[in-house]
Design a protein that fits this description.
Low-confidence stretches: none
Radius of gyration: 20 Å
Strand content: 15-25%
Number of domains: 2
CATH topology of the largest domain: inorganic pyrophosphatase (n-terminal core)
Shape: globular
CATH class of the largest domain: Alpha Beta
Largest sheet: 5 strands, parallel
Bound molecules: manganese (II) ion
């Protein structure tokens, strides 16, 4: 939770500007953070940060071109000091990844006081516009964070959340809220300009039923893209499930797909379906295996396993993340050895 001083700070920064620019992560959390702040301000430009979660000096040009008088950075793990130094306007950065130290930036990261709160919930604490209750709730669930305002949501939308839940993943895979998470997430796939168009459309949606019932052209627009990505997603999922070995503590699958990267989303669902397995899902692209790895709450610590294994592989293989959720880029030629080492490390239960 944000402390009152932070709520006041962010609110004031938002109020004291005319042309804010918002850089946000290309996921459910990042985009719902942006939409709430943008709605409140009624002004500003959104920029999606795709690929690496990093804002570097290249983005300074966007700030200047727009003539922004303030910069907000939402749910981005890394911001280069060079970027901040190149600007002549204040920078406010809300994040919940590994805390960083930068100069001349107002940085709010609840991890600094031992909490992990996604920026979409920080935005909710700051703005709390009842019209955006559903946006904020969907954002939280999309980030595997149990929405602290779920009772309020449940009362307002009992058909979208029939009961209260203890775990975000139960909301994700058993309620229409989860479907809204996937609608947003899948709409962010593909080309950056298409993703930004989707976010713009989403920012004009007034009720979740516009999407779920396709009752307006804009709701229908988001639904169509969702269905298109979902088709590919379901095909890969069916393939994975067909080859699951009941006795193998690992679930390993690789696929080739250039257009839509659904690896993270699918790895999450597979962990929900097979909580006792270590999931390694890899998308092959340009000779690299882009891996999403997951393990259950009581499963092996993947980040530790990676720390041990990566230095022993040829250079160019990278990765990292959280205890039970990691990402890695492994050269195709090293993938077999990588999997062998992962099995070895995880059998020793790191
Ligand atoms: Mn996030």
């Amino acid at each position: 939770m944000l402390r009152q001083e932070h709520i006041d700070l962010i609110k004031q920064e938002l109020e004291c500007c005319q042309r804010p620019i918002f850089f946000f992560h290309d996921d459910c959390d990042g985009s719902t953070s942006y939409i709430q702040l943008y709605h409140h301000k009624g002004e500003g430009k959104g920029v999606i940060i795709k690929a690496a979660p990093l804002v570097d000096v290249k983005y300074a040009r966007k700030v200047q071109e727009y003539g922004a008088d303030k910069v907000f950075i939402l749910d981005i793990a890394m911001v280069d000091q060079e970027f901040i130094d190149a600007l002549k306007v204040p920078v406010i950065w809300l994040d919940h990844h590994e805390p960083q130290k930068r100069l001349n930036v107002k940085y709010v990261n609840p991890r600094n006081w031992g909490e992990n709160v996604p920026p979409c919930f920080m935005a909710w604490q700051v703005v709390g516009d009842p019209k955006d209750l559903w946006i904020a709730t969907v954002g939280c669930v999309g980030d595997w964070f149990l929405p602290p305002m779920q009772a309020e949501f449940q009362q307002k939308y009992p058909d979208l959340m029939p009961q209260l839940y203890d775990k975000p993943e139960d909301i994700m895979f058993n309620t229409p809220v989860g479907e809204l998470v996937r609608v947003i997430s899948f709409n962010l796939k593909g080309r950056t300009d298409d993703a930004l168009t989707s976010v713009k459309v989403l920012s004009r949606i007034e009720s979740p039923y516009e999407i779920l019932k396709q009752s307006t052209p804009r709701g229908n627009f988001l639904w169509k893209k969702y269905l298109k990505v979902k088709q590919g997603y379901d095909a890969i999922k069916a393939q994975v499930i067909r080859y699951v070995k009941p006795d193998d503590p690992f679930l390993i699958h690789s696929y080739t797909e250039d257009q839509m990267a659904v690896t993270k989303d699918l790895a999450n669902e597979l962990t929900y379906l097979y909580p006792n397995k270590v999931v390694i899902l890899a998308r092959e692209k340009n000779g690299e295996m882009k891996c999403a790895m997951r393990s259950g709450r009581d499963g092996p610590i993947l980040s530790k396993a990676l720390e041990k294994i990566l230095p022993t592989l040829p250079p160019g293989n990278t990765g990292g993340g959280h205890e039970h959720a990691c990402g890695a880029n492994i050269m195709k030629d090293d993938f077999e050895e990588f999997v062998r080492r992962m099995r070895e490390e995880c059998a020793a239960k790191v």
